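Case study.
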Amino acid sequence: MTETGYNFAYLDEATKRMIRRAILKAVAIPGHQVPFGGREMPLPYGWGTGGIQVTASLIGRDDVLKVIDQGADDTTNAVSIRRFFARVAGVATTERTAAATIIQTRHRIPETPLREGQILVYQVPMPEPLFRLEPRVAETRRLHALADYGLMQVKLYEDIARLGHVGLSYNYPVMVNHRYLMSPSPIPAFDNPKMHRMPALQVFGAGREKRIYAVPPYTAVHSLDFEDHPFRPIRADARCALCGSDASYLDEVVTDDAGGRLFVCSDTDYCGERQARQRRGEAA
Amino acid sequence: MNGPILAARDLHLAFGGLRALDGVSLDLWPGEVVAIVGESGSGKSTLLRVLAGQLRPQSGQVTYRDAEGVAHAVQSLSDAALRRLSRAEWGFVHQSPRDGLRLGVSAGGNIGERLMALGARHYGRLRETAEAWLRRVEIDPGRLDDLPRAFSGGMQQRLQIARALVTGPRLVFMDEPTGGLDVSVQARLLDLIRALVAELDLAVLLVTHDIAAARLLAHRILVMRRGRVVEAGLADRVLDDPQHEYTQLLVSSVIAA
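After joint prediction, the assembly is written out as follows.
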């Protein structure tokens, strides 16, 4: 079912080379945003145009692709991007985290720990972590250049002064390699610790803003905090209704209009494998 | 460590045909308060901005001697070095609190920002420091979490001073700190600045058009006109026995109550 008339993985080779150069530069300077000449992709901005261009530049014929959207393999965004690459690159796709070599993700890091050789590609709506605090783009670049991140710390201070805790549950800013402040894309703060010294390469693509940044394997990634108000990953205090996990990140599902609700794993692959293992256990 | 903390030699800066600085030199010694007075447009604010490294002179030299006694040529410092100096060793008090404060950030956050930029990461201690500084500038510590928007003009100005002094700078630039305040508030603010300057042994460059404020605060006075320093000397000498005709005009035009 591979389409003819397209170059392998949709983008032309010159574009892929330009994007690969940006990725190499991003890997060389962990957490630094590298501009690239973003192309129009056959999907709207906000649907993963940055991630899809990074994936298209990285993917080879032997790669196995997994795409997740909010942790799920079966939502519109994930299904259509996976099918897109199956058609224009003819690569194998999978829903299993362990079997994939490239995982494109929107808003989650898989629960199954990633290993060396895998690449995690994030879709990023807004790459600039300071954009709500400093409206001038030129000034944010100067702040990055001078590693002047007092402003972000002031924001955390204000949150604690007003709310008693940091009021960020997703897109929680991190310091990469003790140097650059980075937006981890809107993943839950719960996933932040997984970025720290991850064996897999992490590449972030922002299509609308035309920026690429990266965290190479085994790079230090620290969530900003105060010594007496340490960073706490937030998780719903419940077990998954399907697989019983008390360690995974949970989605809250409203089941009726009488206040009924249940919590299920947001990572469908992780949940499904746990359920399969439990069924095998019962059968044995 | 001997020698002036800040020395400027033969500064020139013209905006088109307008000579904002025309051969200005000055020395500022540790612990000394020097006032720069002159009418609007005489170049005094431009001089302050050049000395603080915010503007580059067309010719001339500004030398700052840091806490270790190392001399820096201010006009050729890199952005990073200048930022480090202005964060760690300098303070700047603006005429309008809007320029010196973050109005959308609480008083505590405003005072803590410079500390956090220098690496302070302990929330409790930051608050203690901010509270102590509020007390020092005579603001009720109970207003730690209030926004500066809710403060009066005088309080905003005192908060700005606390924010500038919290990191223990050696050199403070003040640009008309009492401008736009009513007389009684001005008097209190001048009192406060005088006490803090003495207590912390600060070197201060004060730009003002208020001769009375200069007399109260300054050890020495420089009188500027059309980009030139027309007279300089001890504050009392300049004000009691003005030599230059322009200084005589300035001193005689002070309205006595």
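Observations recorded in class. Chain A has two domains: 13-129+171-223, 235-284. The domain at 13-129+171-223 of chain A is CATH 3.40.50.11310 (Rossmann fold). We will return to this complex in the next lecture.
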